[in-house]
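Inputs:
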Amino acid sequence: MRPMSDTPATLPETWPDEHGDYLFQYAYLRLRNQAAAEDAVQETFLAGLQALGRYDGKTPVRYWLRGILRHKVVDHIRKASREVAVDDIEGGEILGSLKFKAFGIPSQHPAPWKFDPKHAYEQKEFWEVFYGCMAKLSGPMAIAFTLRELEGLSTGEICKELRIRPNNLWVLLHRARTQLKACLEANWSRT
Amino acid sequence: MIMCKQVAKALSRERYYEMPWHRRIPMFVHIRLCVMCGKYHQQVVDFQKGFRGFLEQEGKGELDAGMHLSPEARKRMKDQLETP
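Outputs:
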């Protein structure tokens, strides 16, 4: 991926080469669809071109474009979430379990990590594995996880977007964490 | 003293390190005393730290996951941006 350069923001024709891969990587992780991610980047460039007169140069153009892209991505996720049935979340096995009813936690003994996360977080290569595992999540679980962990939306906002109850969101996030943990352990331990 | 269920709900709704101190202190006391919640809490916090680290790397542009625009898409975008 190209690093940021000093090319003036007023040369939009350089944006695809300068910032295209960076923005595509950002969009792909959140949308998990090549065509949708490319469309979002293209829309971002066009919106940036139209808004260029309002760009004050205080932030690097890459981050300014990323701000525009973020809105495009969240809008896309919102539209996609309306088309996805999220009422098939089978939370019963977790929320109905005696352990949860009694203690409020899914398992008395969550399996320990197979690697040391603190050590892993210091390795640059780990984040590439992390990206790959995040990109493998799918369905409502991926939408909920993206909105929560990457975009920082609140429980209330996510429940409103997905039209689910907080308990359902809890189940989705729990499943996503479990799947992500399994993927990280399988792929990071091997590297 | 707060209950395990309240700890689990709070951790699922908010980031531990972003909670106000008056809510974090009873959580801290509980998870120090309760082995089950301690383990669960540790894993949730590990994830929360992981996401924070990931977003930092991503924000700085230091992450290269090998994702690239297709040549067709790149050309299409360039053509659109070059059109007066």
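Remarks. The radius of gyration of chain A is 19 Å. Chain A has a mean pLDDT of 82.
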